[in-house]
């Protein structure tokens, strides 16, 4: 009897998971289609944006005397971290308003509330995949060193970046339901975070300008270790600095668990507010 109950529960859980995943992909594809509807270039915009920023940031490096080598070196130093940063930033800015944007669905259909921020991250993942293809082509075309063992770190770095983005996005989504200011400020917030991360400059360049105390404070930023990990793997062909990457783990987990906990608690009352 007990084995039959367990089997039935397994079947029920399996069906729920399939329905959950099906709805996830349905909502994600809907958001992607609506974003590029009536657009001439369509998904190409997801490629153009980081490419344009790469050129701008490379020019800034040149004007501020931060050039480490030729133009191709600066392009790779910038683009290898700009692509994951765009994923991180887009994930936050799409997860933040996801609950408000799907309020009608939440009122009509009983669905897992955690689904909506996850969909925001998934749509950002689509843009990331498009830009990653260009990044792969650049690495090959420019003859950058490729270390197959180092490439195995990319899934680890992506998981950390995704958890961090999802945690921050859930915090913004939770409070944004009650106060729209949180959502309106999220774009400005991610812009500040961009300049506080090693994108236009490298970690080594930042450390050269900071005192030991401020270096310690700077390393509290979880994107520092993660983005430098991407730069090491893709631009240098080496494994990430494990000590540096380890500094990002606690903050990443704190943001994710805090965001998940806040969202789980506050989502009980979303339907009443929406």
Question: Explain this structure to me?
Answer:
By secondary structure, the protein is mostly helical. The protein has one domain (25-273). Helices cover 78% and strands 0% of the residues. The chain is built from 14 helices and no strands. It has helices spanning 2-36, 45-63, 71-95, 98-101, 103-108, 115-141, 148-151, 153-176, 181-195, 203-207, 212-218, 222-236, 242-266, 270-273. It is globular, with a radius of gyration of 20 Å. The protein starts with a helix and ends with a helix. Mean pLDDT is 84; it is low at 1-5.
Order of helices and strands: HHHHHHHHHHHHHH
Helical/strand content category: mainly alpha
Distance between the termini: 44 Å
Q: Which stretches are poorly predicted, pLDDT < 50 over at least 5 residues?
A: 1-5
- Strand count: 0
- Helical coverage, percent range: over 70%
Count of all domains: 1
Summary tags:
single chain, 274 residues, mainly alpha, 0% strand, disordered N terminus
Q: Topology of this structure?
A:
Blueprint (H helix, E strand, L loop, with lengths): L1 H35 L8 H19 L7 H25 L2 H4 L1 H6 L6 H27 L6 H4 L1 H24 L4 H15 L7 H5 L4 H7 L3 H15 L5 H25 L3 H4 L1
Helix pairs in contact: 1-6, 2-3, 2-6, 3-6, 3-8, 3-9, 3-12, 8-9, 8-12, 8-13, 12-13
Gist?
The protein is mainly α.
């Amino acid at each position: 009897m007990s084995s039959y109950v367990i089997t039935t529960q397994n079947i029920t859980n399996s069906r729920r998971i399939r329905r959950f995943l099906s709805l996830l992909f349905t909502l994600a594809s809907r958001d992607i289609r609506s974003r590029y509807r009536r657009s001439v270039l369509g998904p190409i915009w997801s490629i153009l944006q980081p490419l344009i920023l790469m050129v701008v940031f490379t020019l800034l490096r040149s004007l501020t005397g931060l050039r480490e080598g030729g133009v191709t070196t600066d392009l790779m130093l910038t683009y290898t971290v700009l692509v994951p940063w765009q994923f991180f930033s887009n994930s936050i800015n799409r997860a933040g308003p996801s609950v408000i944007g799907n309020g009608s669905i939440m009122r009509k259909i009983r669905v897992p509330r955690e689904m909506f921020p996850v969909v925001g991250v998934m749509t950002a993942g689509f843009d990331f995949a498009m830009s990653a293809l260009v990044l792969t082509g650049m690495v090959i075309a420019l003859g950058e060193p490729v270390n197959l063992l180092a490439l195995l770190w990319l899934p680890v770095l992506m998981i950390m970046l995704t958890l961090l983005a999802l945690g921050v996005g859930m915090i913004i989504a939770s409070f944004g339901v009650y106060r729209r200011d949180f959502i309106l400020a999220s774009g400005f917030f991610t812009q500040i975070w961009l300049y506080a991360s090693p994108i236009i400059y490298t970690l080594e360049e930042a450390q050269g300008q900071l005192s030991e105390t401020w270096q310690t404070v700077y390393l509290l930023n979880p994107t520092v270790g993660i983005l430098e990990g991407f730069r090491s793997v893709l631009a240098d062909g080496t494994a990430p600095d494990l000590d540096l990457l380890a500094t990002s783990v606690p903050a990443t987990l704190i943001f994710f668990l805090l965001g998940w906990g806040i969202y789980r608690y506050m989502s009980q009352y979303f339907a009443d507010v929406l």
